[in-house]
Amino acid sequence: MQPFTVSIQEQLTTTFYEWELLGRGWLHAGEPIQLEPPFTPFFGHSIPDLQMVDDAVVPTVLSKVASLFTSNTQQETSQTVDSISYTPFPFGEDSSLIRHALTFPRGFIPNTTAVFSFLTMLSYIKQPVSVELRATSDEIKYYIVCRESDAPYLTLQLKTYFPEIGINTSIELFEHILDTSLPLSTVDFGLEQEFMRPIAMYQAKQPDALVPVLSLCQHLSAGSTILLQVLFTGVINPWTASMLRSVTQTDGKPFFENAPEMVPLVKEKIQTPLFATTMRIAVQSEDSGTASQILDTLCFAIRTQARSLVNTLIPLFTDTYTITQRAMDIAFRQSHRFGMLLNLGELAQFFHFPAYNSAFSKLYSGRRKTKEVPSIAVGNPYSIGINEHNGKSTEVTLSDTQRMKHMHLIGATGTGKSTLIIQLALQDIAKGNGVSVIDPHGDLIEELLARIPPQRHQDVVLVDPSDMEFPVGINIIEAHTDTEKEVLASDLVASFRKHATSWGDQMNAVLANAILALLESPDGGTIHDLRRFLVEQPFRAQVLSTITDPSVLYYWQKEYPFLKTNSIGPILTRLDSFLRPKVIRTMLIQKRGINFSELMQKQRILLVKLPQGLIGAENSYVLGTLVLSKLHQAALSRQNSSNSRYPYYIYIDEFHHFITPSIKEMLTGARKYHIGLIVAHQDITQLQKEDTELMHTVFNTVATRIVFRTGDSDAKKICEGLQSFEPSDIQNLAMGDAVIRIEQPQYDCSLETIAAPYCEEEHRIKNSQHIRALSRKSYATHKSELEAMLLASLSLSTEKEPQSIKKEHTKNEKHQEGTQLSQSYIEVAHTDIPEPEQQTSTHRYLQLLIKRMAESKGFIATIEAPLPDGAGQIDVLLKKDKQQIAVEVSHTTDAEWETHNILKCLHAGIETVFSISGDVKHLKKIRTSFEKEKYELKSQQVHFFTPDTLLEFFNENDVIAAPASEEQIIKGYRVNVTYDVISQEEVTRKRNLIARVISDSIRKKKTK
């Protein structure tokens, strides 16, 4: 038999695989060992001594590698390659294990950089760390387990990189991890190819490798349990240099000529830290067949998710690795097998925190992001809620000083704002604080009435318009200092202007001066007297005779007569609609009403119930703003009594409806008077629509913000002022859950509000009735007395009506500017004006009417004129000099279509657009629809008119009387004309007549 010589290449290749086997995770020992394989440096490929083989067996590379797994691996490999050691280091750690149970907030998305940084920091830990996914048919749990000495460091790193994750630490009980009464099927994994070849690595944009495993866990049947355990530790020895030398020759060229890709693969793998890793799965079920079936499915899922183009994981089966040894290794977080060498990305493929997926409800159900309560919110007298973080419950509290800087509650309807208001108000009441609550719905007030303690029943002032028999008086027109008078006049004007469909600067001046006149009168007055002052000239004269303020007198005696008589029409209309409901009228005609200054000074409880269904939404809002104005006046009066200022808290639900100058002043200055505001609303758009300046004041001035669930855009805006929460955290808050920020962004935390104490129905009724009776007795008046007082105050004239005034044509007569208000009611001779033909549509009729109106004012009017850009037609186009006005008429079309027509004109470059409708409600809908578009008008203007208000607009922008002879514009053309001078009385007469005809004509068109 001829001896043969093993080639040098075969010897070198055999040496490579003998050394490479250390890092695959295949080798097994008879006792628990350290995860990191014994390190033998690989200094390069050197030529060994040739061996003469004469045993009639021709060895191959594979046969030599396979021989490593025969009966005594250690002995045989040492005989084959003396320089490579396979002797493992025993594992003798027996200290206690600490389990970190993790909870993930809904909407949680792991940050890739944070995952890699966290794992890098864990490489510092010398003892194995175990990451585990355990699932039953009821739940999925995520754990990180380490030795007791490493627990503080691991907890610190978790909080640093993932502060939103909840952590609950406890001592791990070994007997709880496996059920000894059930069959166990388990397997561990190793690398299929050379350990230098990377498996799939974790990337944020790639499908999550845990999804198939979590899917199996989510749908696990009853009686079965799944455990995925990844045990790892950072390597200590310099494996990276040896790995690179093992695949290159001394000249740097690839060692494997047929696998040159090994060099770049090794370079890719050693870019990040290496970890010695053991990965295994265990399944228990009521029968071994089911357990084996689940195990096979999990093996397939893991192999699939680990597969890269060059390597994957494979299950390892070793007969000498008994099921008892495996169970002990699982329980004690140890291993009989060498750990495979994985880099950071490979390890992260199976050790990362899963992104939120609603399909895995067993993992995320009921979980949300939490943060520990800051120290400034601990140990204060007022409880806001409970902070649950990492298994610890802490009460979130505020001090009086913090509350004086105001509170802002925001969240969608039904999220818990009212519950928090009730809870806070009850604490104030129990501590003896003064409280005012303004509720535009009424439910909140009813809940408070049921729970106010008996010792404070006498302090309650209940303003409830639904109590028609005993209305509580609120005299809006009452002030004492000059500052209070200015505040009242400003707020009342602002409130009326906000809810009026037509308003102008003249009306501001008229209403403000009328209010000041009543305030300056020693006889005082009510809002009912305000209407009389504007309507009844004798009453106005009587009031003016009692005041001494020269500015007010000058206005009414000198300026007012020059105003057009229709300047007070919208004011009277608004006053009429406000005072028309008897429930409001009987409240506001009382000169002796609630003394708000006394109420605040004596720490009373003011409950203002404003049911919109009873008094109307707009009246509810106006009344609320007026009450706020009175509270502001009372706050200002406290500046003279600094030594006796007790805390007083004002709660305003849906506060965007009550925006006046007072609310702005109170937000910025009420703190110095010991007034704390608690304002609540649903979304930011409500503030933007009403008052952008106020929105900025709320977000920049209010110190404490409590955020319930909101929409996407609001969540983004709110999170600009939070340090620890993302928009998704806000959007996913459950009912009663909230996030609070106190003074600064870093002082934010999560909380759960506390429900109001339960109240028996019998107690609710009894408590409420007793408080109502006491409030009636102290502050209310029976309606019969008020009706008699109202009847006595009304001036019902029985004088003969004035005769018709005939028009006189007098040349060069000086025009008399101004008229007394009574002239606006002069009877005019009836003139028959032809009605539009029945077959003519109302839409066409309005077009013709607008055309005639405009032509009388010098415009060229064109019906159905084409738009400049050819995108359609305009109902009526008005031209005068360089001015163009597009008029869009609506009779039957919906608000959305009319908004489209308005935008069509604006996009075509028309500077001014009028939207006309004979139906006031429909006109409001059109305006609301247009405002929702948030079109940036810049220099363009959009106006909304009924036909009669359009006429007023034309008249207010027209000359009352033209010169006797001059060049005029008639229907858009220049002509020389001569007119008789028309007096103001004649102009007024014509206006009233035309307005009446327009109204009657449209009404008749609707009935035909």
Structure characterization notes:
This protein is of the alpha/beta class and 1008 residues long. The protein folds into 3 domains: 97-364; 406-702, Rossmann fold, CATH 3.40.50; 821-1007, Restriction Endonuclease (3-Layer(aba) Sandwich), CATH 3.40.91. It is built from 37 helices and 29 strands. The strands form 6 sheets. Strands 3, 4, 5, 6, 7, 8, 9, 10 and 11 form a 9-stranded antiparallel beta sheet that branches. α17 packs across α20 and α18 (527-535) packs across α19 (537-544). The longest helix has 24 residues, at 984-1007. The chain is elongated and about 130 Å long. The protein starts with a strand and ends with a helix. Mean pLDDT is 82; it is low at 50-58, 68-82, 795-840, 959-966 and 975-982.
Provide the fold topology.
Blueprint: E1 4-5, H1 8-20, E2 52-53, H2 61-66, H3 73-80, E3 97-103, H4 112-122, E4 129-135, E5 140-147, H5 151-161, E6 166-171, E7 184-191, H6 211-218, E8 225-234, H7 239-246, H8 262-269, E9 274-284, H9 288-306, E10 313-316, H10 323-332, E11 340-343, H11 344-350, H12 361-364, E12 382-389, E13 392-398, H13 400-403, E14 407-410, H14 417-430, E15 434-439, H15 443-451, E16 460-463, H16 482-498, H17 505-520, H18 527-535, H19 537-544, H20 550-559, H21 569-579, H22 582-588, H23 596-601, E17 605-609, H24 612-615, H25 617-636, E18 648-653, H26 661-669, E19 675-681, H27 684-690, H28 692-701, E20 704-707, H29 712-719, H30 727-731, E21 737-742, E22 748-752, H31 761-779, H32 783-793, H33 842-856, E23 860-866, E24 873-880, E25 883-890, H34 895-907, E26 912-917, H35 920-932, E27 941-945, H36 947-956, E28 965-970, E29 973-978, H37 984-1007
Parallel strand pairs: 14-19, 14-20, 15-17, 15-18, 16-17, 18-19, 25-26, 26-27
Antiparallel strand pairs: 1-2, 3-5, 3-6, 4-5, 4-8, 7-9, 7-10, 8-9, 9-11, 12-13, 20-21, 21-22, 23-24, 24-25, 28-29
Helix pairs in contact: 4-5, 14-15, 15-31, 16-17, 16-25, 17-20, 18-19, 18-21, 27-28, 34-35, 36-37
